[in-house]
Amino acid sequence: MKKAFVVDFDGTITVKDVGFSIIQKFAGEGWREIGDRWIRKEIGTSECGQKQWDLIRHSDEEIRDFAGKFEINPGFKEFVNIIKRNSYKIIVLSDGYDIYIKEILRLNNLEDLELSCNSASYDEGWRLSFLNQDKECNMCGNCKKKIVQRLKSEGYEVYYIGDGHSDRCACVYADKIFAKSFLKEYCEEEKIDYYAFDNFYDVMKHI
């Protein structure tokens, strides 16, 4: 069977959550209250994201420079090499933003990876774009569930690797789940089978 690996970015490919770190460092007063509303599902990613990035008064160059200091998770490059060597499919799937994701992938010579994420562009203020929303749900800016379901319909065995809130609804459609942090807690609460991981050497043991 064909295999596809769907990999979250923030806190999964990267050691730390870059998107959250950007908001924490650069956004003005009020960002935490907006984020708390998102966690409580009172607002979706698009509303939360735009409100928080409206509080940032720094340019795209400053954001990219900051993002470039973040490390990727140990074993990820080796993991990618195994995927390519076996002609498996890999998609970097994030509810974060291209402004920092593309920069980090570029700095690690990984810019050729297929990427699906939201967009953030700067022009005397930040404008966010969400091109893969589920109009019925509208909670995530980039509906990961739709992409996992598409891969399944195309005959792929799907391996889902993630750590966060935006991974919860999508991962249950995958054949195998690798989870850490918030996603691990969710799988345990809902009694969903998963493999725990801290880095990509842990993931490679099960490929």
From TrEMBL:
Protein name: MtnX-like HAD-IB family phosphatase
A GO molecular-function descriptor: L-phosphoserine phosphatase activity
Top EC class, one word: hydrolase
GO cellular component labels: cytoplasm
Family, as annotated: Belongs to the HAD-like hydrolase superfamily. SerB family.
Keywords for the protein's UniProt record, in alphabetical order: Hydrolase, Magnesium, Metal-binding
GO biological process per UniProt: L-serine biosynthetic process
Record-listed E.C. numbers: 3.1.3.-
Cofactor entry: Mg(2+)
